[in-house]
Amino acid sequence: MHRDHDLPAPLPGAEPLGSDGNRRALRIGLGGPVGSGKTATVAALCRELRDELSLAVVTNDIYTTEDAEFLLRNAVLPPERITAVETGCCPHTAIRDDISANLEAVEDLEHQLGPLDLVLVESGGDNLTATFSKGLVDFQIFVIDVSGGDKIPRKGGPGVSTSDLLVINKTDLAPLVGADLAVMDRDAKLQRGSLPVVFCSLATEGGVAPIAGWVRARLLEWTA
Ligand SMILES: Nc1nc2c(ncn2[C@@H]2O[C@H](COP(=O)(O)OP(=O)(O)OP(=O)(O)O)[C@@H](O)[C@H]2O)c(=O)[nH]1
Ligand SMILES: [Mg+2]
After folding, report:
1. Ligand 2 centroid to residue 130 C-alpha, Å
2. What's the confidence (pLDDT) of residue 62?
3. 21 pLDDT exceeds 60?
4. What is the mean pLDDT of the chain?
5. Average pLDDT of 65-80?
6. For residues 223 and 170, which has the higher predicted lDDT (pLDDT)?
7. Sorting pLDDT into bands at 50, 70 and 90, what band is 180?
8. Is residue 14 one of the residues assigned to a domain?
9. Does residue 173 have its Cβ closer than 6 Å to ligand 1?
10. How many angstroms separate the Cα of 221 from the Cα of each of 50, 72, 91?
């Protein structure tokens, strides 16, 4: 296949070009335990980036379309930019093993809305073992929060140790649950080496800034 030599080397996994030969949207997956703040991250990213980028969202829920409905109710994007996949099975399967429903949802959005800059794919809430197939997303954000205690980063798992960005959310709750953020930071770094970690509170105005900054940097690389 002809490929423009100015483009960066393709990532292992998905092709960076769409079927029309143009560069497709950057795809970022968000995984993490139930209730850690994945939808809150998606909503905040949409509000932060929607005026500067063309973006769309695919949500995954096991039995409902609750997360898509939340995003629609809160009007974070026009309705045609939000698609729900009801996995009906372990969320893991739909983002890692049989990615066909998600891939189709992403490709349909790109096809219907024209060129997009960014597609966010939220996994159904799962445990610490969830990871996305590289055939579905280019980068993975793993969202955990402080409310399960400061031991979570120490427990490891592929999301904590190998995701492209680890988000430790709900720092506003740390004093209430006795979570020591310094311990979480130390353990996360031990698990991840040089991979980035951000602490945030999405319940706080501007709390998404460090995640949005990371996304902007990935987009700059993608379109360089
Ligand atoms: N205090 C506090 N609450 C938060 C924060 N971020 C999210 N929440 C709340 O945590 C709850 C769960 O957030 P969601 O964004 O739905 O979590 P999720 O990871 O998408 O959940 P599932 O998709 O069900 O796995 C909601 O009630 C949010 O309002 C935060 O930074 N601080
Ligand atoms: Mg959610």
Report:
1. 14
2. 81
3. yes
4. 90
5. 93
6. 170
7. very high
8. no
9. yes
10. 19, 30, 29
Backbone angles phi, psi at 65, to 5 degrees: -120, 35
**Ligand 1 lined by 172 (C-beta under 6 Å):** yes
Q: In this structure, is residue 17 part of a structural domain?
A: no
Q: Is residue 81 part of a domain?
A: yes
Q: Which residues surround ligand 2, an ion (CB under 5 A)?
A: 38-39, 67
Distance CA(133)–CA(118), nearest Å, equals 17
Tell me if 126 CB under 6 Å of ligand 1.
Answer: no
Q: What 8-state DSSP symbol labels residue 11?
A: P
- Tally the domains of the chain: 1
What is the spatial distance between Cα 135 and Cα 150, in angstroms, rounded to a whole number?
A: 32
Q: What is the pLDDT of residue 18?
A: 67
The pTM for the full model equals: 0.91
Q: What is the CATH number of the domain that holds 74?
A: 3.40.50.300
Q: Strand pairing partners for 17? A: 23
Q: What is the domain range of residue 188?
A: 26-223
- Is residue 32 one of the residues assigned to a domain? yes
Mean pLDDT calculated for residue range 49-58: 97
CA of 97 from ligand 2 middle (Å) equals 20
For the chain, helix, strand, coil in percent to 5 are 40, 20, 40
> What residue has token string 């429903």?
101
What distance in angstroms lies between residue 24's CA and the mean position of ligand 2's atoms?
25
